[in-house]
Structures are given as structure tokens and as C-alpha cells.
# Entry
Amino acid sequence: MLDPALLRQHPADLAERLRSSRGFELDVSGLESLEADRKRIQVRTQELQSLRNSRSKAIGQAKAKGEDVSAIMAEVAAFADELKASEVALDELREKIEAIALGIPNLPAADVPAGADESENVEQKRWGTPRSFDFAVLDHVELGARHHWLDAETAAKLSGARFTVLRGPIARLHRALAQFMLDLHAGEHGYEETNVPLLVNADSLRGTSQLPKFEDDLFKTAVGESTRYLIPTSEVPLTNIVRDDILDAERLPLRMTAHSLCFRAEAGSGGRDVRGMIRQHQFEKVELVTACTPEQSEDEHQRMTRCAEVVLEKLGLPYRKVLLCTGDMGFAAVKTYDLEVWLPSQATYREISSCSNCGDFQARRMQARWRNPDTGKPELLHTLNGSGVAVGRAMIAVMENYQNADGSITVPDALKPYMGGLDTIA
# Structure
């Protein structure tokens, strides 16, 4: 959530910045009308509360003297209904203003390129050379069809479209990738391994900005009067660990990693990536999350992105790094780097990791703070998150880039310790 002072004091300037950078239209006149009503009713509410307090004190003093308090009681009763109505109206106005604030995206950093969509993202680097094949390249669906290792039909029987059953050495490859990434990030990269719940409450999703804007993309459960949501990414529980906390400066930067299942309804994605495992309702990811001071924020963003790059380099997978333009960034981000891995069957790079700096946008929603030792006062943290990386897409990339003419798949050296000595999936 943006600083409320921007909404209250500079709504027209904010609207122009949002329009030019995000294509987001802020209803300035509607917001100003609500804010004017809020100020008016708040002043009247405070007047009535002050009057109530002063008359209540007068009642106490009169009773102590044994005086008749009926006249003062009648006066209090006369404005009690107005005070109650005023307090209710003030709460309603605050909720309306907060609802507007919760629907406003973050403002991009100054060095984020302006652009309307992914075609205007800016490539930063490429690593590795895509392999040249002297045989017809198969995609991961065709490679996984051997021995029904990758089985969408059975998954559809069990759950419906956009699910997959993995079997045998492909299932082991998938597990090996997750273990390899988790060991790398928790070991060499210094992130604390964390195991988090897959079901979270609405407060957690509001904290990381999935609610209220993206509710249609969430799966939720209801047991009795209790409603919980399946996480779309472990960014949600990891980041919310610091919700309503004030961290000591010595604990920062706080770096956490988790391997988890993720669940997304993929609302609005009908017709896209329906073949294979590119876009699933259920998938796995190794997530990276950092909470830090504003001064550490940019360095942590570069560091986090580099940690995700190392995964792909150790796996020998060609990739490119792009800086997302304003029109392609996520709702909560001030700046985002995407890593795109080479898929031979499509002869193109496809996203496998997205690393975002959210500034204080999520922290303000969560009231996640740190105590500045120079002032002794609590200040908002900065939060960052990134895929380190998506396990299913990494498996697809390994299958396709390491395929052989006979349909077998060579196991990358980095994964052999996790594959029980298996060198080739055949």
C-alpha cells in the first residue's frame, strides 16, 4: 500500500504518476469527495466525543456533591445518537478510502523502463549458448510420454485440467531439482530454510497484496465458519512471518527460503500454455524472501536475482535476464528482474524466475517494521521476493535441453548426487 499521505495531500500528482507509469486510473474527484467527508465527520465526531467526556466528568462531579444530574443526563442523551451515527459514518468512510488504497499498485522505481507490455522489457544479459541438435527436438510432453512418466490424462481423471501425474525417474528428477535448489540457497547462499503452512488466512494475503485485487486467482477452503486460502506462492507465508513485528537492526537482512506446493486458479489464462506443465493449477517452487532496511534494499535485490541465476548456471541451462518495464511489473513491485530459460522445443526463452523489490509497499500493509538504532524509532521494512526457481519449469528445461536422439535424458552433473547414481533417464 502506498503512503496514505500521497492520497490525502497530492492525489492529482499521484494520479498522473499512476497513469503514466502503470496505466492505472485513479478517481481523484471521488477520492477527494470521500476525504472531504471524512475530515468533516471526523471533526464533528471529535467535538461530540469531547462534549461527551466533559459532560460525563460534570456528571461525576455533580453526583459527588449530591446535586441533581437529570439535566446533564438529558443533554448527554440528546447527542448520544448523533455521536453513534457519526462514529459509524466515519468508520464507513475510512473503509471506503482504504478499499481504494488497497487497489492501487505500487509506483515503479525511477530506473524502471517505461513500457506497455512485455515487448518493452529490457534485456540485461544472456548466459550460455542454446544447444544445436542434429535430430528432431521433442518437447517435454513427448519426452515424458515414455512409460507414462508425465501423465496428464490420469491427472485429469483425478482432478481435471492443468494437473499432471509424474512417475518413475521423472518424478525423482522433479524431487531432485527441489532438493538441489533448497540445499543451494540454504547452504551457499545463506537463506534460512523454512517450512511454511500451505493454508493461510485473509490477513496474510492482504499483507502481500493478493487480496483484494487477485481473489479470483486463489483457491479457498471453508470448514464451518473458518475460511482459508491455498497459497499461490510461499512468498505469502514467508513474508507475513514479519507481519506486526518490529525487528532489531542486527537481524537484518532477514533471508528465508522455502520449497512448497503452490496453487493458482489461473483466472483469465484460458487458452494459454494448455499443453504440458508450463501453466498448472498446482506446482512447486523454491521461494526466496528477504526483509531488510531501505538502505539494504537495492543490494539485496541484486543479490537475490544472482542467487536464482546460479541455479540455472549450475544446471547448465541457457537463460537471459530482463528488467521488466512499467507495464509488465507485478502489482506490488517497484522493480522486477525476470530470468527466462531456453526451451528448445519452442526455440525461445520462457520465464522461470521473477525477483521483485516491493519497497515498503507490503510492509505498510503488514505493519512490518524495524527499529532504527540511530533514532530508536520503528520504521517500515522493505520486502523482496523471488523464485529460486520454479521446479516444474526447471524440470521441463532439463528434459528438453538434455534430451538425446533416442528420447532419453542425460542427468545434469549438479543433480546426480540427488538421483541415486542415475546418469540417464531412459
Summary: The mean pLDDT is 95. The chain has two domains: 4-102, 118-425. The two ends are 51 Å apart (CA to CA). The domain at 118-425 is CATH 3.30.930.10 (BirA Bifunctional Protein; domain 2).
